[in-house]
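Input chain follows. Return structure tokens only.
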Amino acid sequence: MIRIAIANQKGGVGKTTSAINLATGLAATGMRVLLIDFDPQGNASTGLGIDQKSRVKSSYQLITGSAKLSDVARPTSVPQLDIIPATQDLSGLEVELVDEADRTSRLADVLNQETSSLWDICLIDCPPSLGLLTINALVASTALIVPLQCEFFALEGLSQLLHTVERVRARLNPELTILGIALTMYDRRNRLSEQVAQDVRAVIGDLVFKTVIPRNVRLSEAPSHGLPALVYDHRCPGSEAYIALVRELIGRLPQPTAAAA
């Protein structure tokens, strides 16, 4: 099972929207997809129609060892896509695990111990910070996707994240690679969006996906209906962009899985 963390320490960059729609798009290709909601806000869970009251078992129980992966994962309305929902309990994990020697590898240990043959690929939606939860996701993952908003401070925040990735590689997970940078909230009417896109490509090069995700009202509306945008309105510009991004992403996956898709 390929494991991909979707992370950016800055909020409001389209991280969860990307996680939901990439997971949906990958599932549409025939892949068996697991989405782990690792953000205490639980927005990925809400965006896939999992209400708060039904989240009896969540990623919190998974990390604390009180539930198994197969017990916590649940199907969504999207065929081939399962989710491990999140609750606000996750926000206290940093304090609860402060004295634990394995505090940075809890998620990796769970995914390593249990058979993952039920899914081909796992996406982990991280919280908007570089705290213990995100570190756990990076340690558990083989690859990283970074959604990056086309705004002035984008490169500054990206440099902090890349520095963290290098530290994780050096100390905790040498197998971690950056699969790509996804430019989000692109506004063609705004010169700044184009300038930021050019700057990021000049600095990062081919790591930046060619597909850019535009600002789109339908992308914002979809979560309130508990649906991915790809299901809510697959013809809107935002959905079409995510479909193109999924194609690009599959092309960057290890060959056997990409071929199976």
